[in-house]
Amino acid sequence: MDLLKIRAFEDDDILLMKTWLNKEHVMKWYEDPDAWLSEIYGRFDKFSFINHFIALYDRNPIGFCQYYICADADEHWYGNIPITGSYSIDYLIGEENYLGKGFGKAIIALLVNKVFSLDKAQRIIVFPEPENIASCKSLLANGFIFDEKNKLYCKTK
């Protein structure tokens, strides 16, 4: 996985992202492509608190990922997790040839390292669909703990 990197999302990635969001294996978990695209289009203003990235393997785009400070998002799935110092991540593999080969786990590891390099980051919380077994297993493999009370995955710094 040494050839796996993430880089900042660019305007030239929008068409590729549209393609990925409309693939069956992605739509299963990202049901509203327009909402995701709206965040990307607004990444320099309304959604500037979200840090968007493209995952590259050997310089070829294979997926998308992002992180954000939970306090900046208008979401209500955190339960009793302290909002201060909490970040969340999202990720997807768009290219089918990279599914089931450990790339999701590796993308999560890159995101975790990026978030935990930030001074204010104390924890990362994630709320995947419980039926998304691959995502849940990838989180656990990266040291996340399933918080039974809040029904989410959490990793502390």
TrEMBL record:
Enzyme Commission number(s): 2.3.1.82
A Pfam cross-reference name: Acetyltransf_8
GO biological process: response to antibiotic
EC category: transferase
Protein name per Swiss-Prot or TrEMBL: Aminoglycoside N(6')-acetyltransferase type 1
Residue ranges crossing the lipid bilayer per the database entry: none
InterPro entries membership: Acyl_CoA_acyltransferase (IPR016181), GNAT_dom (IPR000182)
GO MF annotation list: aminoglycoside 6'-N-acetyltransferase activity
The N-acetyltransferase domain, residue ranges: 4-157
Superkingdom of source: Bacteria
Entry keyword annotation includes Flavoprotein: no
Record's keyword annotation contains Phosphoprotein: no
Alphabetically ordered keywords of this record: Acyltransferase, Antibiotic resistance, Transferase
